[in-house]
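Q: I'm building a small set of examples for a reading group on sequence design. Run inverse folding on the following structure and report the sequence directly after it, with nothing in between.
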């Protein structure tokens, strides 16, 4: 009997902070046997956005949606992993694919994922393209001496019992995790090319609570807000760090990519 696959994500204030949550959900829905969504008490209309998306799907029985879950849970630095793990815990599938609300899984990965869960070890690493400067470039994170705002190789596909760890970048597979197929499994991360000034708003919000009650946002982000509210990626990386994306955008995010291109030209 074929192995079953569940997908999960959690989200809060997707509209306010510019998360491409509907595109993310569409990619999970197209691949997975179950989709678990944890909505964490948004105050910007995100709850209705997700409710409307769920209502539009013929296979609504395969979607597990939990609304108004408390956001302030656990220690600040561990909150993201806790919430991601709660979303995972509702799945009843053999395997689990974890996505963040500003990421979209590429459809070229679907056949390989289905193949791997039939014969694989306990988990797999995959490639995350962290889009930067515009929708058609990504930043190389594996640079010596450079900071790592987020990883470009993450473990997101694993047997369902394995829990999410750290700041929800990866699933914590303690043994039997493979990187052999890493470039055949691809996520597009739109977190650094959000529309308008939403990247700045999101960064300030997260950095204000992530490090606890005395958390302070990055002074460079605050300066961008104060000097016109426009995100300037060149502050963080130099031109040689940025590469063209190697494949077209996921079909679920083509419209988003066009919007971002238009904005980049303004």
């Amino acid at each position: 009997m074929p192995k079953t696959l569940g997908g999960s994500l959690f989200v809060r204030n997707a509209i306010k902070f510019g998360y491409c949550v509907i595109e993310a959900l569409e990619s999970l829905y197209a691949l997975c046997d179950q989709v678990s969504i944890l909505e964490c008490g948004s105050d910007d209309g995100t709850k209705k956005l997700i409710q409307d998306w769920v209502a539009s799907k013929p296979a609504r029985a395969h979607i597990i949606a939990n609304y108004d879950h408390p956001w302030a849970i656990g220690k600040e630095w561990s909150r993201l992993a806790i919430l991601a793990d709660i979303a995972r815990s509702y799945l009843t599938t053999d395997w689990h694919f974890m996505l963040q609300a500003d990421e979209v899984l590429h459809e070229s990965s679907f056949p390989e994922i289905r193949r791997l869960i039939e014969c694989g070890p306990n988990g797999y690493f995959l490639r995350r393209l962290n889009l930067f400067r515009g929708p058609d470039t990504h930043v190389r994170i594996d640079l010596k001496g450079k900071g790592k705002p987020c990883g470009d190789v993450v473990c997101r596909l694993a047997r369902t019992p394995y829990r999410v760890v750290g700041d929800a970048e990866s699933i914590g597979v303690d043994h039997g995790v493979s990187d052999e197929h890493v470039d055949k499994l691809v996520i597009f991360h739109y977190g650094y090319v959000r529309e308008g000034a939403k990247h700045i708003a999101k960064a300030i919000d997260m950095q204000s609570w992530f490090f606890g009650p005395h958390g302070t946002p990055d002074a460079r982000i605050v300066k961008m807000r104060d000097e016109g509210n426009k995100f300037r990626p060149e502050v963080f990386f130099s031109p040689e760090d940025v590469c063209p994306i190697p494949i077209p955008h996921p079909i679920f995010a083509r419209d988003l990519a066009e919007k971002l291109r238009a904005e980049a030209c303004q």
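DSSP finds eight helices and 13 strands in the chain.
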